[in-house]
Design goal:
It is built from twelve helices and 15 strands. With 350 residues, the protein is α/β, with parallel strands linked by helices.
């Protein structure tokens, strides 16, 4: 597929190939960051929702910057087609159970680590595994890559609920996590902070809230519910949304900011979205009536993304554009990941 400029967004996304090309298209900020980065990059947990196109963006940004670099993707690779697809895109792959210390220790030592491994959905009832993945594993990774620079995904779930008109939690707000998942994510942050100080290891923590593409995201959940004629639950009445391609580009730019103690940044869209208003607009786009259940709580899980926009680049894709793409994708029966976000959850049980 021919390269197109960052500013040339299509009116519609015709299929998965075009979608993944768009999701992996680097911004000038990402290309500049990859030009400044010294050495190879390893992506731990590359097999999840975000990993494949994020690794591909790192490859494309490095190539655009004229930098020869290995981009290595590591995962258990439960889906057999993922390694072949990554290899075809110039990304080396290594199958590895990261919780197996022997396998982890055999990974190549590289100067730049992107940490995506996590457990969220299904954490209720598997709290022990959740804590092992989200807290114990980061400590193991820090020991293995103690001489590297690490950028790690966290989550906006570490914050408390904020009033809808507040603009969302900022990086300076104290964490107040609700439930095992959110508490374990804060534990992940604490592990990176502890080992970062111990070994003078530059790190950065990305509190993401929420990444979207055609097959996954809060907007996708709402569009599916409207299309199916199901009532829209208003209990979590507000949310943030950012195009996954934009969040990935910001992620690569974060490497410039890794520090001791860790640099913390929210990666989120620029506005607070109303579930009611979004559902009504999807009703218009999809040609379906919309019904609601319950009423909006006065607060919601919201993040203020201003610092990220100032330091890493503003999002290229607007919410309106995402909604038009998603509505068209839904009407054509485009493929889905089958992973609801459960964004309505207010008790922290995922």
């Amino acid at each position: 597929m021919a390269e197109t400029s960052c500013d040339a967004l299509p009116e519609r996304i015709d299929g998965v190939e075009q979608l993944e090309d768009l999701l992996s298209r680097p911004t000038p900020e990402a290309i500049s960051a990859m030009r400044r980065m010294e050495g190879d990059l390893i992506v731990l947990g590359v097999g999840g929702k975000i990993g494949p196109t994020l690794a591909r963006m790192a490859r494309r940004a490095s190539d655009a910057a004229g930098v020869r670099r290995r981009v290595i993707g590591v995962s258990r690779f439960s889906k057999g087609e993922v390694p072949a697809r990554l290899e075809a895109q110039g990304i080396e792959t290594i199958a590895c159970d990261l919780l197996d210390r022997g396998q982890l220790d055999r990974l190549p030592d590289v100067p730049n680590v992107l940490y995506l491994a996590a457990m969220k959905f299904g954490s209720t009832g598997q709290e022990d595994t959740t804590w092992a993945m989200n807290v114990y594993l980061p400590g193991m990774v820090c020991e293995k890559f103690r001489t590297s620079r690490i950028v790690a995904y966290s989550s906006g779930n570490v914050y408390r609920m904020m009033p809808a008109q507040s603009g969302g939690s900022t990086e300076g707000d104290p964490p107040e996590p609700i439930g095992d998942y959110a508490m374990s994510v804060l534990g992940r942050e604490r592990m990176f902070a502890h080992f970062g100080r111990r070994w003078e290891m530059p790190t950065a923590l990305i509190r993401l809230n929420y990444a979207h593409e055609m097959r996954y995201g809060v907007l996708v959940d709402l569009a599916q519910q409207v299309l199916a004629g199901r009532p829209i639950d208003l209990s979590m009445g507000y949310f943030n949304a950012i195009w996954q391609g934009d969040s990935s580009a910001m992620t690569l730019a974060v490497f410039d900011h890794a520090a001791v103690p860790p640099w913390v940044v929210n990666v989120a869209g620029p506005e607070t979205l109303s579930v009611r208003a979004v559902a009504r607009e999807f009703g218009r786009l999809l040609g379906r009536p919309v019904t609601f259940a319950g009423s909006e709580s006065p607060d919601a899980l919201l993040s203020n993304g201003r610092l990220g926009h100032e330091e890493l680049g503003r999002p290229r894709v607007s919410v309106g554009q995402m909604m038009r793409w998603i509505a068209d994708w839904q009407l054509r029966g485009g493929p889905m990941l089958g992973k609801p976000t459960h964004f309505q959850t207010r008790d922290g049980k995922f």
